[in-house]
Amino acid sequence: MWPFRRSNKQVAVPTLTVDPTEGDPTARALREAGERRDWGAIRDLLTPVTDPDDHAFYLWALADVHGLQDWIGEWIEAEPRSTLPVLVRGGHAVLWAWEARTSAGASQVSQEQFKEFWRRLRLAENCLDEVADRDPDDTTARAFLVSSARGRQVDRAEANRRFDEVVARHPWHRIAHEQMLQYRCRKWYGSHDEMFEFAREAVAKSPAGSALGHLVVLAHLEKWLDLPVGEDDEYLDDDAVRAEISAAADHSVRHPDYRRRPGWAKVHNTFAMGFSKVGDRRSAASQFEVIGDQVTAWPWQYINSNPVIPFVAWRDDAMAAAD
Questions:
Q1: What is d(CA 163, CA 311) in angstroms, rounded to the nearest whole number?
Q2: Pick from 235, 248, 258: which is nearest to 1 by CA?
Q3: Which of 107, 114, 136, 208 is the most exposed place for a label (fewest CB within 10 A)?
């Protein structure tokens, strides 16, 4: 097994950085437009995007821009008949809410932080619900509602309803599946069994070449993260786990029908970490070759608050083993 463990230990940090656009030129242009408050450019970049997965990825990249809440009202007032600025406000408010709460455990979050967290989530859901009501075919608003379900602490029936509304319109929506998997995790409102049932069923039903194969890897990493030290690495040092991750890759990123789309880097980073954790260095190396320098925060942040540190360490080891 790999010796690298979850840690925030201070070590020399490589010059590589996490790029929230994953090298995608449209995502980069959207973030730059958001930073300069150019909503006209944002509109022109997002309007032609018709693929639901691409649209959700681009909105997520834009929604993470700091300070967007300070000027988005200008766009809404200027184009009151358009749902797009309302969608941007809602998507941003979801991520803005988590910024207020932080990633700390609940016991370490103050009541003031929680109040602000819930206030921003209410704003987000009001906007997203408005978009869904005005544009019944919109999948991006509904996918963000799946994400906000955890923060709003909605019950199982409501979480399922939100997810079903997305997949009824786009069955293999990647972000909606990722967010629903989180809801099904034991650390939120589900269990390990529910999480694996969801991941395995989604992958089994998905077409060959679908990016959803990484859901199985995420499920194993989530269980590993939840286990006590000692049991965690022992759990991943198992032939059945290796075989399932390998089969997921064969169905997904290693299938001839697989095509990279915007947001592809997170999928390959997930497989790279999964193969690394189970000790399949050659398979990990093949994923790192595809990734290049496009390290993503998720899932490497599960190991270190600076995702670059484990990414580079394991990439170097995998590449050395493959030589």
A1: 31
A2: 235
A3: 107
- Whether residue 172 contacts residue 210, with contact meaning beta carbons closer than 8 Å, is answered with yes
**Residue 37 token pair:** 């408050």
Nearest to 248 by CA among 291, 300, 281, 283: 283
pLDDT digits (tens, 9 = 90+) for 192-223: 999 999 999 999 999 999 999 999 999 999 99
Give the chain's count of helices (H) and strands (E). Answer: 17, 0
Phi, psi of 65 (to 5 degrees): -70, 130
Q: Which amino acid appears at position 31 of this protein?
A: R
d(CA 159, CA 249): 28
pLDDT score of 5: 42
Residue 123 CB partners (closer than 8 Å, separation 6+): 89, 90, 93
In this predicted structure, what is the pLDDT of residue 7? 46
Residue 266: CB atoms within 10 Å: 20
Q: What is the pLDDT of residues 270-288, one digit of tens each?
A: 999 999 999 999 999 999 9
CA distance 38 to 25: 17
Mention every residue, 6+ apart, whose C-beta is less than 8 A from residue 249.
213, 271, 275, 283
